[in-house]
Design a protein that fits this description.
Shape of chain B: elongated
Number of strands of chain A: 4
Helix content of chain B: 40-55%
Radius of gyration of chain A: 19 Å
Order of helices and strands of chain B: HHEEHHHEE
Shape of chain A: elongated
Strand content of chain B: 15-25%
Number of helices of chain B: 5
Number of strands of chain B: 4
Distance between the termini of chain B: 34 Å
Strand order of the largest sheet of chain A: 2-1-4-3
Order of helices and strands of chain A: EEHHEE
Distance between the termini of chain A: 16 Å
Oligomer: heterodimer
Helix content of chain A: 40-55%
Chain lengths: 94, 140
């Protein structure tokens, strides 16, 4: 499994104006918080998954967390560039 | 036609070799000879979605230009979510696909079909023009 992106680069500039502001946001902090929440809720998730198995959708509950982790780990290289009349914003996961 | 192929055909015309021998020689040349090999699949990594204002539209100044680069690995990971689609929702999707002439169950998407789907994206290029803005989707 790949390492999740650690930083989010946010670049804000204005059209036809030299210079731009760059912010490096530490998204790895969000992953740490999410991991802590996941660990705290793990007993509940396991219980819900066991109960859900009797109702036929236990597989969905069990698979949801690894699939979300897989998506987060593959965010590397994702880039969003929005350009309006007065502002240009670029977000990219590093 | 390459020189080797011409030489074999000349030898066949002169009666130096039989038709079977000529066929074998031509096949041997074709498998490893001077013919250009087929191009390998492109190493595409990203799905690009670009939305830009239509320059001919009077409202084009109100439209923001958006350029999104999505890693294909994320697309691959996202498609795996199809296994979590509830049965009733997948039934609606299947019905919509059937309306378009595609008889397929989205819940039965296998890993090898997933790879084929990603490979098919390499040849994808979609242009949408609604009069106000244009959308261009392609793989790079």
């Amino acid at each position: 499994m790949r390492c999740p992106p650690l930083l989010l680069r946010m670049e804000i500039s204005r059209p036809n104006v030299k210079g731009y502001n760059v912010f490096w946001l530490p998204v790895f902090l969000a992953w740490i918080v999410l991991a802590a929440i996941f660990l705290a809720l793990l007993p509940l998730i396991v219980f819900v998954a066991l109960v859900a198995l009797f109702f036929g959708f236990g597989k969905s509950v069990i698979l949801f967390v690894p699939l979300v982790c897989n998506c987060i780990c593959n965010l590397h290289g994702m880039e969003i560039n929005v350009e309006s009349r007065d502002r240009i914003m670029v977000l990219s996961f590093r | 036609m390459s020189d080797n192929q011409k030489r074999i055909l000349d030898m066949l015309a002169e009666g130096k070799i039989s038709a079977d021998e000529a066929q074998k020689l031509l096949a041997a040349i074709g498998s490893g000879g001077d013919e250009p090999k087929s191009t390998p699949p492109r190493d595409a990594k990203y799905l690009r979605v670009v939305i830009y204002p239509d320059p001919d539209s009077p409202k084009s100044e109100d439209v923001r230009k958006v350029n999104v680069r999505i890693p294909l690995s994320l697309v691959r990971a996202g498609i795996k979510f199809t296994s979590l689609i509830p049965a009733d929702a997948s039934g609606q999707i299947n019905a919509a696909l059937k309306e378009k002439g595609i008889d397929y169950d989205v819940r039965n998407l296998k890993p090898e079909e997933l790879e084929a789907l990603i490979m098919a994206l390499h040849d994808l290029e979609v242009d949408i023009d609604n009069g106000k803005e244009k959308v261009h989707v392609y793989v790079e």
